[in-house]
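Assemble and predict.
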Amino acid sequence: MPDPVCIVGGTGALGFGLALRLGRAGVPIVIGSRDTTRAQEAADRARGRIPGGDFSGHENSGAIQSAELVILTVPFRSQSETLTNLKPTLGEEHLVIDATVPLAAAVSGKATRTLGVWQGSAAQQAQEMVPEGVRVVSAFHTVSAALLTDLEHELDEDVLVCGNRREDKARVAELVDRLDGLRAVDCGPLEMARIVEQFTPLLISINVRNKVRAGIKITGLHP
Amino acid sequence: MPDPVCIVGGTGALGFGLALRLGRAGVPIVIGSRDTTRAQEAADRARGRIPGGDFSGHENSGAIQSAELVILTVPFRSQSETLTNLKPTLGEEHLVIDATVPLAAAVSGKATRTLGVWQGSAAQQAQEMVPEGVRVVSAFHTVSAALLTDLEHELDEDVLVCGNRREDKARVAELVDRLDGLRAVDCGPLEMARIVEQFTPLLISINVRNKVRAGIKITGLHP
């Protein structure tokens, strides 16, 4: 039985898409939301899509108590507040997988532009905000929420992973490998998230131009 | 007969690799260098690799007088000086294809990090520096110089193109399409170069980790 995964922001498009795909792969999913009712509704919806899937819904702080792996898929606007609220509950057992992208849309700017984050990236901001001993890995920025949610769609792209500890990245890679058509690529230390987070607005720009749902693949890697 | 292409910085690794591949595809190549002798030596070397290829070598200013398409493949350290020197010779007929990446290596920093460029990107710096009426398109940042130079290697990756005019990007795409295994992807206006230029340090980070020559491919596009 795979370790359970908590998705903070699991009622949003990306979080819900990941919940569906991971749930279908047999991973027990705890959907976290600020609002317990919304979390439970999302879990119900997920169960409707994946009969037999193990989905539950809780308020964020309660949700992360039942999983060591915590995927953070909240809008950049809410990242800091969410982490502040989670602080008392986050402990050394947790590995936070941050998928936040500092889109300028957070301040009514364009979704093809980003904001400068003082720490370098949203992931580094997360690392600064979590309690000592909690590790942060950055991943899942470039996979389209719509394609994840469309369970008929066969994915065929990479998940770019940044983090400071090899073991943490290996754990995330193991999770990614459960999802058909996705491959984890180790992009280096967490500071490289400042580059990977920029891929989302670029893909949005390509999407708009070509009316597609683009993703990223790294060429030249050994199969 | 395709239009000739001038490669300013064609004695460097990326410029020479592009010269070889384009020359093999039948494009007349003018290699530009600050030093005429080095430019001519590079043209001789290219002719040795591609018998029958149309290669010549000139000092930069002379070189760009024989081609409307100018690919700029100089280190970031030299970009500004090179453009200042080219200014009197650049005219409205020219389309500058900038491949400059502001790697921190320019100031003895890491090749997995970049410098902040006041204008947003090296390409936007180039656009600010060229005379009124000269258009700049950004491209060719993510293709490995070593793989271009290894003519046995079958390329299979994308060239991410940013620019403000659709016609200019179409002209660059036409050039890219001459190269087997490369596909041009329109990434939006020139300002998106600030994102695309970051891909090079990320690929360098992936290369170091995996002992490969990685490239980028955008998934989900119509074939």
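The longest helix of chain B spans residues 36-49.
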